[in-house]
Amino acid sequence: MNNILTKNTIIRLILIWLMVFIFMFFGKSIEGLYSNNGLAIGIFLLVLATIIGAAFGVVKEADELAHKLGEPYGTLILTLSIVSIEVILIVAMMFGPEDNPTIGKDSIFSVMMIIMNLVLGLCILLGGLRHGEQEYNAQGTITYLSMIIMLGGISMMIPNFIEGKGNGEFTSIQAASISGLIILLYGFFLAYQMKGYRHLYIQPKPGQMEILFAQRNEIQQSEEHGQEKVSKKEVLLRTIILLGMILPIVLLSHNLATLVDYGIKEMNLPPLLGGVLIAIIVFTPESMTAVKAAMNNEFQRAINLCHGAFVSTVGLTVPSVLIIGLIASKTVLFGMTTTETILFVITLILSMLSFSGRRTAPIVGIMHLVLFAVFVILIFNP
Predict the structure, then answer these.
(1) 91-137 pLDDT tens trace
(2) pTM (whole model) above 0.90
(3) 8 A C-beta contact, residue 59 and residue 305
(4) Residue 184's pLDDT band (boundaries 50, 70, 90)?
(5) Distance between CA atoms of residues 212 and 215, nearest Å
(6) Which of 58, 61, 146, 298 has the least CB density, counted as fewest CB within 10 Å?
(7) 135 DSSP β-pair partners
(8) What is the CB-side half-sphere exposure of residue 199 using CA atoms within 13 A?
(9) What is d(CA 11, CA 8) in angstroms, rounded to the nearest whole number?
């Protein structure tokens, strides 16, 4: 119990919930201060710090559950926790004071560029500099990339090449059908990943790729024995703490959306920055975990975190946003711009080539980082 409810965890929960109560009771008064740019920036930074602190708390508890439950269940819990935060923030922006029909697409595209270029580029480069060529499970990685091509292409490329409602918007029938197909495909992928083919997502031992097939039988034989060792009380308590970290994000998301809309409008900033901010809030903790995994020579875990995060993002966020848009009669645009489409395709091709072998090459990490730098430049100077 003491190992779970550490001093840092208790302090984090107290500070986060203190901010929630302040905005619950004094929210209207605080919103009246937004007209003062200096105060608005200060309040924004305070809310942002609170939400990021809560996101780190979510990742910490989810990561502890990950180690208790093992791969790929643990990583799945981590990515699902993160995606739930992303959906919360996107929906808050959709229902903010300004119309944000592209916020879902902006967020998902930003996640792709950050996760698949910045974070994986750092993982490949830093892991390679420390450990040389790092091994990973090529077959499992290819299934991730295949899912990314399918889900990303269906949700964000197809809208620009169909009639739909025009301007990259699905019709109601298209939105409902595509949401169902994406959920179905993602469900099959999870079943594939978590049952008969778990061995494809586990770190191979150096120079012994053939051991993966033996691991399949070992996993199946030890699964029940391993589950007995997991403390149900600890899992339950960590789950409660995890929910206690996620709920404040839900309650503060409207305030963040209002401040972001105000800031982008007042400072005449690119609208895409709203999606970039969501991606940074949501995936900074998980990105740090992925880089640490690569530095610890656990490159498969880094892949599971990064590719798994993006697959979960598209597989869950797209249907959620489309369905909410249908229910609330909100315009939802997933069609990418020409520049975004080109960056999307280059990222996919580069990723397929980067993970076409069984070991990493540090120079490839630099290529991914350069592509991310191009993305940042084009945000401010399109």
Answers:
(1) 888 887 777 888 899 999 999 999 999 999 999 999 999 988 888 88
(2) no
(3) no
(4) very high
(5) 5
(6) 146
(7) 359
(8) 16
(9) 5
